[in-house]
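We include the pair:
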Amino acid sequence: MSTSLAMPLITNDAVVLGLLSLILGFIFYTSNSQHPVWKKFYQYVPALLLCYLLPSLLNTFGIVSAQVSSVDDIAKYYLLPACLVLLTLSIDIKAIAALGNKAIIMFLTGTVGIVIGGPIALLAVSAVWPELIGVTGPDAVWRGMASLAGSWIGGGANMLAMKEIYGADGKIFTIMVTVDIVVANLWTACLLYFAANHKRIDAKSGADTSGIDRLIDKVEHFERNNARRFELKDLMLIIAIGFGATGIAHFAADLLVPFFTTNYPELEKFSLHSKLFWVIVLVTAIGLTLSFTKARQLEAAGASKIGSSFLYILVATIGLHMDVTQVVEAPKYVVIGLIWMAIHVILLLIVGRMIKAPIFYLAVGSQANVGGAASAPVIASAFHPSLAPVGVLLAVLGYVLGTYMAWMCGQLLRIIGS
C-alpha cells in the first residue's frame, strides 16, 4: 500500500531533486553502457519505463511524496513550458514540405487515427467493462486516455501536458504509461520488421520510391552544412529562449484566465479557465513562431537535447505520484490500447494503399506520432541511416500538433467517458 498520504521520510525539495537527478543519471549511464549485463537488461526493459518506475518506488515506500514536495509544481509550471518551446523551436516547415505530400498525408492520417481511435476504443471496450465510463473524477479512464493521446500524437511532454490539463490522477496515469510502453513497443517491433522488408513490400504495393533517394541526398547535404560545435553562448541563448518564453506565457495566462473566468464561465469545460492550459498553448505557439527565425539555428547547438533533459526531469517528478501496486489493473486497459492502435494502423494502411505511399512514409509517419522524437529517428534510420533526421522533423511536427490534437481527442473522450 502506498504511504504517499503520510509524512514521507524526505521532505527537503533539494534532496528530492538530487535523488531524482541521480536516478536519471544512473538510468542514462547504464542504458548507454556496453557492458553485456546492461545491454541485455535494456533489451527487455525500456529506459523510459525506469524513469517513471524508479521514482514511483520512492512514493510507494514512503520515502518521498509528491503531495508534500513542491518539486512537481516547479517542473509542471517552469520546465514543462520551457521544454515545449525548445522541442518546437527546431521545426522547419519548408523541410517538412519538401518531404512530399505523401509523407505529410501519412503523418496526418496517423494523427487522425489517434484522435478518433481513442473514443472508438473506449466505446467498444465499455460494452464489456461498463464501469470504465460514467466516471467524472480525476481517476476517470477518459482523463488518462487524453494523456496517452498526448504521447501518441506528440511525445512525453505533450502527455504530461494533457495529464495536467485534464487532471488525471497518478493511478490512472500510471496505468496509461504501462499501456503506452506495452502497446507502443509492440507496434515499434512491427515497424522494424517493415523496415527490414521494405523493398519487397514497396514492390508488391507498386509504390514509387524515387523520392526517397532524392530525400537521402538532401538530408545528407543539410547535415554537412549545419553541424557546428557547442559553445557556452549557445547554452545561454537556449536557456534565455526557453525560460523567457515561459515567462511571457505566464504573464499572458495571468491576464487571460481572469478574463475568460469572468466573461465566459461556460468555457470552463474546454479548459479555458486553466492557467496551465494557456501557458502550454502559448509556449507552443511561441516555439512555432521562433522556428521561422534565426533562433531555429540553435537546434544545431542542442536546443532539443536540453528540452529533452527538462522532459526527463518532468517524467521523474510524475513518477512520484505513482503507486506501483496499482499497475495490476492494467490488463483491461491494454485491450483499450490495442484496439486504439489497431484503428490507427488500419487507417494508415487504407490511406497508404490509396495513395501508393512507400512503407517508409507509413512507418515514420506513424512512429513520429506514437513514438515521438525518441524513436522516430530509430525507425527512419532502419530504412537508411541518412533518413534519421526525417524522423526528427516529423516528430517535431508531432510536438506542435500534439497539444492541440490531443486536447481535441480529450474533448471527444470526455463526451463518451463522463
Summary: The chain is about 75% helix and 0% strand. The chain has a mean pLDDT of 83.
